[in-house]
Amino acid sequence: MLACTYIEKGKFQLVEKPKPVLQNDRDAIVRVTLGSICTSDLHIKHGSVPKAVPGITVGHEMVGVVEAVGAAVASVKPGDRVTVNVETFCGQCFFCKNGWVNNCTDENGGWALGCRIDGGQAEYVRVPYADQGLNKIPDSVTDEQALFVGDVLATGYWAAQISEIRNSDTVLVIGAGPTGICTLQCVRLMEPKRIIVCDKDEQRLQFVRKNYPEVLTVGPENVLEFVKEHSCHNGADAVLEVAGGKDTFKMAWECARPNAVVTVVALYEEAQALPLPEMYGKNLIFKTGGVDGCRCDEILRLIESGKIDTTPLITHTYPLRQIEEAYRIFENKLDGVIKIAITADEGE
């Protein structure tokens, strides 16, 4: 089968690999019908994910059809349409039982697919712990609607849930990329008084204004003054940092009011400083880390009911055989790209 493979730092290549097989009675084999490229894939390519293993098939954002299941798998069967979770988690350890699935103690717990084990920018993928890692897609939900459930949408939902957002709050979302837009959609479900989105890309801010006209937008050059002007307590009540830029962590805590929650969703390519003397007295609460993506069933129900729609994010579609061109477009942010869908083959 064809598989987009991490060769070495700076190089992905489409190569032929054997079709995966069941290795454990809790595994499933999924035929990938639609995949996508994530910014985290670019972090692997750039060498900023130390756990990433050269030779692995990349990709952790996909939907498909179950081809085979191990003897212990109970929640899905061959023929089921499913979303695939970015996280691998056993469901039984201390962390899983508390909902902290990113910290699953299994040797491949957390983000494994497309990082430490073969992922889904391929024709087939093996999913460990399939009862936890796969969620059945309702018949009324299309592959396109469900594509981001297991990764960027799960991330946005998790971030909104842990940010302690109230109806009276002003919420700042830093970053209007794919994960930022998914986070925005999930923040809107919390119905805060005001939402502000900051991004340096005017095209992305235009996308926000077009699709979410009630949301305020601002560029980074005057974000602090704008947030203070449009909040009740000299800063945002909750800040969700989804950009991962050079200065966006500092922007996040500076724009937060005293005693605010700052949720860091971004994956940085460089170390960030925590200047405690400058922060002293703000009494900020920081929440950080990888997504605990264990509420995909809830997200699918929200999609089914029309409360979440991420299909406008799909601006480009390429077949798997042309994924190298898709990466070129995505990595260089060409042609107004937001997200790229990767179809199973050129015939689809």
UniProtKB/TrEMBL annotation:
InterPro entries tied to this protein: ADH-like_C, ADH-like_N, ADH_Zn_CS, GroES-like_sf, NAD(P)-bd_dom_sf
Signal peptide range in chain numbering: none
Gene3D superfamilies: Medium-chain alcohol dehydrogenases, catalytic domain (3.90.180.10), NAD(P)-binding Rossmann-like Domain (3.40.50.720)
Pfam families: ADH_N (PF08240), ADH_zinc_N (PF00107)
Residues covered by the Alcohol dehydrogenase-like N-terminal domain: 25-138
Keyword flag Metal-binding: yes
GO MF term set: oxidoreductase activity; zinc ion binding
Cofactor(s), names only, from the UniProt record: Zn(2+)
Protein keywords: Metal-binding, Oxidoreductase, Zinc
Domain Alcohol dehydrogenase-like C-terminal, chain residue ranges per copy: 178-283
Annotated family: Belongs to the zinc-containing alcohol dehydrogenase family.
Protein name: Alcohol dehydrogenase
Source organism per UniProt: Cuneatibacter caecimuris
Taxonomic lineage from the root: Bacteria, Bacillati, Bacillota, Clostridia, Lachnospirales
